[in-house]
C-alpha cells in the first residue's frame, strides 16, 4: 500500500521539523518521480520513497548506522509497500549492512544524493535559483571534492547502474527540482 500524498506529507511533517530536510525530501520525491517516468516504473511508488526516505533523520541523527531502520519500522507498522521500505533502508548501506543491488535501490540513493549537489550549486549562483543551474555545472562540481564535500560522489554515480550517464542524470534531476522550485525556496 502507498499513502495518499497528503497523508505522506503529514507523516513527514510529524517526524521532521527542519525545513531544509523537508525541502530535501520534496526534491528527492521530484527526482525519483522523474526517474520512474524515464525508466518506466511506478511514479507514485518511487516518489513516495523519495519523499519519506529521511523520515527518521531527526530520530537517528546521532546514530547514522540506524538511519533508515527506524523509518522502516514506522512505515511497516503503517502497512506501506515493502518495496518502498526496502529502497529506503537500502539508501543507507551502513544501516542495511549490505550493498544495493536493484534499480529502485540505486535510484533512491543516487536521486536523493544528487539533490544536495544541485542545491549547493544553485546557492552559488547569483540568483540562487535551481532553474539557472546547468547540467554541465553540476558535472563540473562533481569533480570538485571540496565543493559540497559531504555529498557522496560515488553514490551519485550509481546513476550509471540505471543506464544513465551523468549529463542526462543531472539534466533530469535539475528539471525535476526546477518544477517545484517555489516549494524548495530555490
Main features:
about 190 residues, mainly alpha, Hypothetical protein af1432, globular
Description of the structure:
By secondary structure, this protein is mainly alpha-helical. It has one domain: Hypothetical protein af1432. The protein is 63% helix and 0% strand. It has eleven helices and no strands. It has helices spanning 5-15, 19-39, 43-52, 69-77, 82-90, 93-96, 103-124, 135-143, 153-156, 166-179, 181-184. Helix 2 (19-39) runs antiparallel to helix 3 (43-52) and helix 4 (69-77) runs antiparallel to helix 5 (82-90). The chain is globular, with a radius of gyration of 15 Å. It starts with a helix and ends with a helix. 41% of the residues are buried. The mean pLDDT is 97.
Question: How would the blueprint of this fold be written?
Answer:
Blueprint: H1 5-15, H2 19-39, H3 43-52, H4 69-77, H5 82-90, H6 93-96, H7 103-124, H8 135-143, H9 153-156, H10 166-179, H11 181-184
Helix pairs in contact: 2-3, 2-7, 2-10, 3-5, 4-5, 5-7, 7-10, 8-10
Give the terminus-to-terminus CA distance.
32 Å
Question: What does the main sheet amount to?
Answer: none
CATH topology group: Hypothetical protein af1432
Question: Structural class from helices and strands?
Answer: mainly alpha
Compute the CA-based radius of gyration.
15 Å
Principal-axes geometry comes out as globular
Give helix % range: 55-70%
Along the chain, the helix and strand elements come as HHHHHHHHHHH
Report the sheet-strand fraction: under 5%
CATH domain class name = Mainly Alpha
Number of strands: 0
CATH hierarchy: architecture: Orthogonal Bundle
Tally of alpha and pi helices: 11
